[in-house]
Amino acid sequence: MLQSATLQFLKDLKKNNNKPWFDANRKRYEAAKADIAAFVQSIIEAHAKKDPSIAHLQAKDCMFRINRDVRFSKDKSPYKTNIGAFINPGGKKATTAGYYLHIEPGQCFAGGGMYMPMPDELKKVRQEIDYNFADFKKIIQSKKFKTVYGDLDRSAEYLLSRVPKGYEPDNAAADYLKLKSFVAVIKIKDADVTSPAYKKQILTAFESLQPLNEFLNEAVSTTE
After folding, report:
1. How far is 56 from 41, CA to CA, in rounded Å?
2. Which of 29, 90, 126, 170 could, after both became Cys, cross-link 94 (CB 3.0–4.6 A)?
3. Which phi and psi (to 5°) does residue 9 adopt?
4. What is the rounded CA–CA span in Å between residue 65 and residue 1?
5. Per-run averaged pLDDT (10 residues), the chain, 224 residues
6. Is 127 helix (H, G, I), strand (E, B) or coil?
7. Confidence at residue 222, expressed as pLDDT on a 0 to 100 scale
8. Tell me, what's the pLDDT at 71?
9. In this structure, what are the phi and psi dihedrals at residue 159, rounded to the nearest 5 degrees?
10. What pairs with residue 121 in β-bridges?
């Protein structure tokens, strides 16, 4: 679980997103960062028993900087109002499927998968889903996955209006071939984040996601 002071810092940062305030509250930030890093490390070590591919990771390999890149943004707020971690064997900058943890008051969530893969990788994933739809369907329709996530995230930003070129509209996998991202997430209440049950909740979410990640990563590792 996380300390309530960690969420309070992020709440206050949202109201005071400027460098003078941040500099004056840097010790609070360092404490919040350390709190989340310790939690992320405990998740890595616990989930590595199920997924050994992440056993070598340290929290610092997975956590994103709080500073925003404002070069191409109209919003010049210097800091993110969340702290996130992408737990992936290749580290936080990897493009393969992994596990994601997002800490933001009122908008906490967890999950993962493969976010907006590049065209070549997207093509491979779609091809794998088409060729092995029975295996893919078994993963996303498993009791464990459906209990935690329900289904993959089908937000408009992740979805084509029609099946991609090369596939028939009546393809059995059409609903999933339309996807541009293959992610699943669960929303988490702030009260849960600071409760002893939080760690178990995250581990259950990651364990339920692991077969999907393995399917996706196997797809992009194949050579044509």
Report:
1. 11
2. 90
3. -60, -45
4. 21
5. 97 97 98 98 98 97 94 90 97 96 98 97 97 98 97 96 95 97 97 97 98 98 70
6. helix
7. 72
8. 85
9. -130, 130
10. none
Instruction: Find the domain containing 15 and state its range.
Output: 4-221
Predicted confidence at residue 188, as pLDDT, reads 97
How many domains does one find in the chain?
Answer: 1
Both structure tokens of 59: 């929290």
Structure tokens at 211: 């077969």
The residues, any chain, with a CB within 8 Å of residue 197's CB and separated by 6 or more, are 1
| Whether 99 contacts 112, CB under 8 Å | yes
- Calpha distance 221→96 (Å, rounded): 9
Instruction: Name every residue whose Cβ is closer than 8 Å to that of residue 152 and which is 6 or more positions away in sequence.
Output: 113, 140, 176, 179, 182, 183, 184
- In the chain, alpha helices (H): 4-15, 19-24, 26-47, 59-62, 119-131, 133-140, 143-148, 174-177, 190-193, 198-221
pTM for this structure?
0.95
Q: Cα(9)–Cα(31) distance, rounded to whole angstroms?
A: 9
DSSP-assigned letter for residue 57: -
